[in-house]
Amino acid sequence: MSVTRRFSRLRSFLPVNRRHARNPLVWAAIVAATLAVALVFSLSGLGSRLGMGDANAAGPHPQPPLHASNGKIVDAHGREVVLTGVNWFGLETGTFAPHGLWARNWSQMLDQMSASGFNTIRLPYSNQLFDPASKPTGIDYGKNPDLAGLTGPQIMDKVVDGATARGMMVILDRHRPDAQGQSNLWYTDHVSEQRWIDDWVALAKHYRDNPLVIGADLHNEPHGEATWGDGNKATDWQAAAERAGNAVLAANPNWLVLVEGVETYQGNGYWWGGNLQGAKEHPVRLTDQSKLVYSAHDYSPKVWQQSWFSHPDFPNNLPALWNSMWGYLAAEKQTPVLLGEFGGRSVGDDAEGVWQRSLMKYLKEHGLSYTYWCWNPDSGDTGGVLADDWTTVHEDKLALLRTHQWPAAARPGNPRP
Description:
Elements: H1 31-41, H2 46-49, E1 67-69, E2 72-74, E3 80-81, E4 84-87, H3 106-115, E5 120-126, H4 152-165, E6 169-176, H5 193-206, E7 213-217, H6 237-251, E8 256-260, E9 264-265, E10 268-269, E11 292-297, H7 318-331, E12 337-341, H8 351-366, E13 369-372, H9 395-401
Helix pairs in contact: 5-6, 7-8
């Protein structure tokens, strides 16, 4: 079973300053970790094959709730927290379940993510997931017997509770209004703004007693006609994010509110959801400003051959580009930034690999949070951390990500009834 990451990556392209398109861990190899993995999987040598380690062993464990302070995310004790996570998609698609459950047990998948050093999962969903007619598919119930008979939201509960029981924090991502595809704006003819907000409020209340469910990524990749700060209620993403964000905080004041960028601001084009230039003049204002985190997406020339990839100074031109589009927000100690999506197949010496290694260096140097796209191997344009067998990790990718990882959170005794 194979699908592309968004089912469609064909986008229109114009040069820079016009409309752009985009298809959107420090090794800790210790003997105790290897032995622990062998026990979990009960197979000789499997831990090494799965790329398991113990990258979360050192350092203080973050203690939610989290909030923003001077451009950083900090925990309940005021200690800096960096989210270094991964996306696991599928709940937003027509399977209404995370992908790969036809090949693996969901709990073993989470064991592997945690042991790989990720402290956060960004979990995409669609509003259609909550419709009674949406039935989960693509699950081998022989491998996942405890999922039999569950609805999509109940499977989400299992994954969320399983992740947080392992100390991984969870960001929920409203990825699509329905399973068919992404939308330019936060609403469509079939999913109104009120439905979008109501579903967020319901989720904020539902997970209120689980402190490791830390936030809401309000809408994935606003683009096309989406504007920022122009006052047009039909297209102004900044204003819509304020409306939804304040509703979320009224329901769950402990959550972070993550607001992505747009595609184009004042004629300057970038990746979908990646352009946060407008936040300088028109910042998002919430009832609790310490709960705001901006989020951007960034991709490689294999996704689309943007003009900066062929610049004579590539890759030395990239840090200035990232600063101008989203990095400045944290650098100027205004608001934390999470790079919610980036990824690619190569970490080698080709342009995509150079881009990935340059971006990881930038994130580490600036102490920025990220959730890598993605865990799944079936992302058509980027591949994933896992190989196509849904079991073996790409060691080169994982080695790169392990250069910038942060400890997992303190594990709750019982995350949620």
